[in-house]
Write a structure and sequence with these properties.
The chain is an alpha/beta fold. It has 13 helices and 16 strands.
């Protein structure tokens, strides 16, 4: 019988909705909780486990919030190993769990977290056991994650059914969170993990660096600015493509955060999810976002401030995606991805979506419903 190990980092992603741009370290996690952040890793794990509901396998979990709780909530009767102290979980807990599951002889470790969690697992596993990540963190630069929680479940289901799935080495990368909060991305390679690969469901390593096509970015910015209306609140997402718009407006920009612009002025900078909901209550609002190079995510990677209630309030018609054709071509035909954490919202935003690629130049591009 297939033995699936499950590790949930309940602290993963806490900092995203409250504009902390990460959750590494006990102090950051505590600050996120004090700001009202709600843990999401369990919910995202449940979305992956839901795909496995009718399959026969043994589920091996770490206790409490690190796996057991959500497994039982989903109707499974897991084999529970290890012990867990009271209080916030730590990186050491993740490492102990991964090491114990490898010793237990599980066939695959499914884990929910971000790049910090992948890094912890890489510290103790190397290539002893294949792993697969359920994306639940703020930073997802590593290539060990499925594109969405549901997609992670689909890959695990293929393995349980005995389908042929390729195993390959994928990079684990993590960034300096302190530098990240200052607007600088310094991604570092920490090793590789053995990961099951299925092209539709697995993401690529995030491509870093700024766009070199400055003239194209200027054209995109000119188009966006020409379309801006007075009295509308524009939520300006993260990334260098959106920064080009802010630069042309002559406004300060939070490169790795979310700002709100109205009538040519920044009315709120580096907003949290709660602030964005408050600022758009009863107002006409639109969202300007770009995609992550090499991966195609437009929602759910580094912009968890764009919450499900906000996306549903805006609707697909008030979301403007901007990107150069070079960036789209780099996807190799793969679709854009919305990973909001809510299946209904993901479906709402799926289908063909116009992408601004220049001045009065748009293409229709598919957003997947994964």
């Amino acid at each position: 019988m297939f033995r699936l190990g499950l590790i949930v980092n309940p602290m993963a992603g806490l900092g995203g909705s409250v504009a902390l741009k990460g959750s590494d370290g006990a102090e950051t996690a505590q600050l996120a909780l004090e700001r009202g952040a709600e843990p999401k890793a369990g919910l995202r794990t449940a979305q992956a486990l839901a795909v496995l509901d009718e399959l026969t396998f043994e589920l091996v979990c770490w206790p409490g919030p690190m796996g057991e709780d959500i497994a039982r909530q989903c109707g499974f009767e897991p084999t529970v190993i290890g012990t867990l102290a009271d209080g916030l979980t730590t990186a050491e807990d993740t490492e102990r769990a991964a090491r114990a599951m490898a010793d237990e002889g599980v066939d695959l470790i499914l884990f929910a977290g971000g790049d910090g969690t992948a890094r912890n697992i890489c510290n103790v596993l190397d290539d002893r056991v294949p792993v697969l990540g359920v994306p639940a963190g703020v930073k997802i630069h590593s290539g060990v994650y499925a594109v969405t929680p549901k997609a992670a479940g689909e890959v695990v289901a293929m393995l349980i059914r005995g389908d042929l799935v390729t195993l390959s080495e994928q990079e684990v990368r993590d960034i300096d969170e302190d530098a990240f909060r200052q607007g600088t991305v310094r991604a570092r390679w920490y090793g590789e993990l053995k990961v099951p690969q299925e092209h539709r469901y697995m993401q690529a390593v995030k491509q870093g660096g700024k766009e070199s096509e400055e003239l194209v970015l200027d054209d995109i910015a000119a188009h966006v600015i020409e379309q801006m209306d007075d009295g509308v609140r524009y939520i300006m997402g993260s990334g260098s493509t959106v920064q080009a718009v802010m630069d042309q407006l002559g406004l300060d920009n939070t490169l790795l955060g979310v700002d709100v612009v109205e009538n040519g002025e920044v009315i709120a900078a580096d907003c949290t999810a709660a602030q964005l909901l408050e600022l758009t209550e009863g107002c006409e609002a639109r969202l300007v976002i770009t995609l992550i190079g090499g991966q195609g995510h437009i929602i759910g990677r580094g912009n968890q401030q764009l919450s499900v209630p906000l996306l549903q309030r805006l609707g697909k018609e008030n979301i403007q995606v901007i990107a150069t054709k070079t960036k789209l071509n780099a996807l190799g035909g793969r679709p854009l991805i919305v990973d909001s954490g809510d299946a209904e919202t993901n479906h709402l935003l799926s289908g063909l979506m116009p992408v601004v690629t220049g001045y009065h130049d748009q293409v229709l591009y598919t957003v997947a419903d994964l």
